[in-house]
Amino acid sequence: MNEQNKKALCVMSGGMDSTLSAYMMKNSGYEIIALHFNYNQRTQKKELECFHKICEDLDVKEKYILDLDFFAQIGASALTDKSIEVPIGGIEEGVPVTYVPFRNGIFLSMAAAVAEKEGANVISIGVVEEDSSGYPDCRESYINSMEQSINLGTKDETNIEIKMPLVHLKKSQIVQKSLELNVPLSLTWSCYKNEDKACGVCDSCRLRLNGFKLAGVSDPIDYE
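== 7-cyano-7-deazaguanine synthase ==
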């Protein structure tokens, strides 16, 4: 493939991890195609707003926003079912109630369709295995198996690599790397509960705040 035509389809939630992954792809010389999912999550409006602002900063020419309303119908997650409370008591053992059943598998399947259409040779996803909330669909072994399945199920000439540059990083390292690359962390959102000021007590806020604390810098977003 011509070096000038390298395209990376970046799955971007508006959060820190997927945003850093996209900036890393751009720094590696890829043209960024941005992909965002609205799946009836609690902070859908805020995440979409962040996605647009990040794409503007990245100078993204091509972006896709896909609406997946069936996640609300499936439910079974505090992110998509308003009757299930988002836990605020700290990280729990096992798979938390904020896990959305097979979300990354569904996202990657749809990303594969867009990547094949666009002729992208890379899909970038910001999964973090070591310092995440314990989601099974963030494991490196799982993402590798999805890469294999995607290549088995697409045209012979389609060859897609799934890059997960953050999979072995801790949140503090993600903060440090973001600062090194001038990633606009003020445009990112991590809170599971709120869309105006971050709650500071859900799993995602706790992981984020702890990452900033260990990195020795303050988080630029507003908290309650």
